[in-house]
Amino acid sequence: MSELPLRAQLASVLGKGAASLSRATGRGDGSVIGGRVALKVEPDLLSKLARGRRLALVSATNGKTTTTRLITAALRDLGEVATNDQGANMPTGHITALSRYPDARVGVLEVDEKYLPQVIKDTKPAVTVLMNLSRDQMDRASEINLLAKKWRDVLRTSETHVIANADDPLVAWAGLGAQHATWVAGGQRWKEDSWCCPECGGHLKRDPDPHWECPECGLRRPDASWAVDNASDSVVDPNGGALRLDLGLPGDANRSNAAIALATAAAYGIHPKQALPRLREIRSVAGRYTSVVTHGVEVRLLLAKNPAGWLESFAVLGPPDVPVLLSVNAQIPDGKDTSWLWDVDYTVLRGRRVFVLGERRTDLALRLETDGVAFETADRVDDVVARLKGERPDLTKVDVIANYTAFQQIRAAYGRVQ
User: Fold this and answer.
1) Which residues contact 133 (CB under 8 A, 6 or more apart)?
2) Of 37, 248, 345, 359, which is most buried with the most CB atoms under 10 A?
3) For residue range 91-135, what is the model confidence (pLDDT) as tens digits?
4) Helix, strand, or coil (residue 340)
5) What is the CA radius of gyration of the chain?
6) DSSP secondary-structure letter at 60?
7) Are 417 and 411 in contact (CB under 8 A)?
8) Using CA atoms, how far apart are residues 141 and 147, in angstroms rounded to an integer?
9) How far apart are CA 221 and CA 218, in angstroms?
């Protein structure tokens, strides 16, 4: 803090004060309001707070918060790590995070896709992590091809070391603009937004998966030095060594997140065998994947905000006899447009006991009916669990999938579980 100019010091102190007041009055965690107050005093505060630190920026449509948490854990051996791992991923949140850790020389910041170019310019990060791009909040974030182009353009003029998922064509195209890149074969389950070449618009050839290339202009998947092997639950490092993951977080998507985290830790000089035990300790992230027990039933919370996210959540559902509760809102943080529900294939839910909740439950109900999925409507998770337990005394588990504000409402009902 002493290295900051006096005006920046004042801005940082006032911002932390505002954040503390917000928490004390129960209005929120203070990440956003603290940054807003600080920016009013010093508009260039983010670049000043970032100076002298080795920052990693983490951006993607899905998995940003989890991967930020994983990387932060992996870098703990370097000392205190400045981070916004609760998800305040715009510049206001970055300012609050860096102000909270004035002495940390290393930082890991989750960054909203739309804001990434500006944050790269402001912070001059040592590492930039790019994982995936798919449609999300189209009424706010614009077309993903345009986002990829903005990423590519800023990376052309940056010294940052990019760590990127080679299996996502949009991410790879953006990352190919960087001067320094490490490629990870992280996988790509959702492909519906990347059948066309981002360079020339030609139809991409995908055979055999995960290879992709454009017959028209020659753009092709970069050779990866890190790779996820889902079949053996492992990551293959640049030397060809296989590292057993054995994560506390479920699913292929989290194996990909872990591979990205290990590659990032290696860029900071931390051996993957040193980082991996840290990753295994994490079992939930800001309520994601957390289980709470109510009426004697384990309720597992899954966050899914867009078609790609719902596809990944379906992949980690419990056995067919485990009921599923789906909750959808359409508030500003979610995006007002719910038409994305029609891009999700819900047929995987056929034969399950399914309940729909949330402010836009009727939109979701219509979509399920179209896919031939039987459903029941409900108001509260607790009501559903009590009803199910009455019908099935042997019931032990249910899964809940919710989009952003619906997820936060459910989480708050259980005391903002971690």
Assistant:
1) 60, 61, 113, 144, 147, 148, 168, 170, 171, 174, 193, 194
2) 37
3) 989 998 998 899 999 999 999 999 999 999 999 999 999 999 998
4) helix
5) 22
6) -
7) yes
8) 8
9) 10
Alpha carbon of residue 193 to chain centroid: 17
Is there a contact between 114 and 141 (Cβ–Cβ < 8 Å)?
yes
Of 267, 186, 188, which Cα lies nearest the Cα of 228? 186
CB-based contact 110:58 (threshold 8 Å): yes
What is the end-to-end Cα distance of the chain in Å, rounded? 30
* Over residues 28-46, mean pLDDT: 69
CA distance 149 to 177: 10
Tokens of 339: 């038409």
pLDDT in tens, 289-298: 999 999 999 9
DSSP 3-state of 417:
coil
Structure tokens at 382: 């607790």
Q: How far apart are CA 219 and CA 213, in angstroms?
A: 6
Residue 415 and residue 268: Cα distance in Å, rounded? 36
H or E element at residue 25: none
User: What's the half-sphere exposure (Cβ side, CA atoms, 13 Å) at 354?
Assistant: 24
On whether the CB atoms of residues 187 and 252 are closer than 8 A, the answer is yes
DSSP state for residue 266 in the 8-state scheme: H
326 strand-pairing partners: 356, 401
Identify whether 210 is preceded by a cis peptide bond (ω within 30 of 0).
Answer: yes
Query: Which helix (H) or strand (E) is 144 found in, with range?
Result: helix 144-156
What is the model's pTM? 0.91
Confidence of residue 4 (pLDDT cuts 50, 70, 90): confident
Q: Is the pLDDT of residue 14 over 80?
A: no
Residues ≥6 apart with Cβ < 8 Å to 278: 73, 74, 76, 77
Distance of alpha carbon 39 from alpha carbon 99, whole angstroms: 12
Residues whose CB falls within 8 Å of the CB of residue 118, separated by 6 or more in sequence, listed in order? 91
Measure CA 344 to chain center.
Answer: 19
Is residue 165 within 8 Å of residue 256, measured between CB atoms? yes
Judge residue 256's burial from the number of C-beta atoms within 10 Å of its C-beta, 0-12 exposed, 13-18 middle, 19 or more buried.
buried
